[in-house]
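hey so i finally got around to running both of the ones u sent me last week. sorry it took forever, my laptop kept dying halfway thru and i had to restart like 3 times lol. anyway pasting them below in the order u listed, first the sequence line then the structure token line for each. didnt double check formatting much so if smth looks off just lmk and ill redo it

first one:
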Amino acid sequence: MNLTLNCIEKIENLENCENLNKLDFTANFIGDLRCISHLRNNKFLRTLYLTGNPCIKYNLYQDYVINNLPQLTELDGQKIEKTE
């Protein structure tokens, strides 16, 4: 699902998208990283893009996302290694 450039401020109401496997929030206004918790139940979600959002400026941004969404295999166009 491509939601690029939509002035989105938080991630919500995607919990029941059972077959969602790619989500692109590039260049929006997502500032609160905690809202990614709404994606935990999307067990088929493998790819997430948050590039261009204020939340990527947080220290340990990638670690936080990977720890909260362990089903991901790619974040912002980069493969996630199992050691991460």
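and the second one:
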Amino acid sequence: MRRRVGIALVLSFTCACGPSIDDSVRKLGAASVEERETGRQELLLAKDRAVDPLLEALENPLFATGRPQLAEVLVGLLTRVDDPRIEIALLAHLETDPDPRVKARIAHKFGLFQHTSGIEALFAALEDTDGEVRFQSIWALGQMADELDRVQVKRLREDSRRLATDPHRGVKREATIRVEGFVDAWIQEARKRSLRGQLAEAESLFAKAVAYSPSSKRANYRMARFYFDNYSQDKGLQLLRQHGMVLDAPKLREAPVIDGQMNEPLWQQAACADSFFQYSSEHFAAVPSDVRTRICVAYDEEDLYVGFQGFDAAPDSIVARISAKDGLLWYDDIVEIFIDPGFDHRGYLHVGINSNGAVSDGWVEDGVGERDVRWDAAASAAAYVGRDHWSVEYRLSLGQEDVPRPRTGDLWGLNFVRVFRGSEYSQWVRTYTSGGHSPDDFGILRFN
């Protein structure tokens, strides 16, 4: 009996000396991240006992600093506590709170925990004057896309198209991702119809995708390829060229010196492009790269010439660990070149080059898993590091195995990738499967 009483006294003393709910609420406004996290955990563990103090604090202007954290904890309690006042309060604050930080935090957490009760309030928040609120709201609706009814899907489709030109960068990016999700559904169905020989139905679906998103790289690429493969190569090429996916390589009268610097005037005659887009396996949007890249192509009777310039605000930080031929340079800052001379969308030459001038090349059949590193191109490369960029010149001999001499008007598949600090993987023509190893998505090299 004495032992039980002693344990009870100890437990009572421990609870009395633990943090009070008011103390935990105050921690949410602390400057220290650790202290705020401690307060959040304490309040989530308190469950029912935390509801009234949190609701009162959310309405109290004295808690201005910690109000976003207060709202976050309340969202966390939605699935832990059966108290309808929490949801009512959160929806009201999402719609009318004067502090956009509170609205944005509620929207984000609704999306994270997929609280579908907030769907209508999130749609309303897409009209908010604050960009962060709009961003978190469209992101949250994207997280709950599978829970939307037909009417709500249509609303999201139209709101996404409208917000794809929003001045807020995050809103624009997220809306574009949503737009490309809708585009993808039409494209997939169109390609199925095309394979079944239902060309009129396929063309109608491709046209629907382009009409919905006229600037969509994917919609325009697939429609162009549909025309190219089924009706008119010229019409397909014209559409691809219009959207920057064709390089018309000129034939040179003199060859560049392969020293990596690209300083000869003849490079001004080459076919060049400087629009690169981030690759992602999580969505289909062609988001412009955060770093500027320029690539150029030309040829003569004997060789194909490729020039690359990777602009860089901190060239001293370029990652270049590998110097050996066919070394594992894929984690360095590199340019990758993909060339499909047969234009069969299957076999292609894959070359990686870093700022040391190290080259790894191989022949690929049906994807990166079949890359034959024993295949060595008859080629040469050089790199140069300048004050605000690094550059590469690459010469590929024509007429060797798997790389025939082109005739005027011949078409090859072509693409480029730039790996920047291991944090961005950008492409000249955006691909959608297997990273860059998607020859059915390559751009086109035309020999003039």
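quick thing i noticed on the 2nd:
The longest helix spans residues 169-195.
anyway thats it, ttyl
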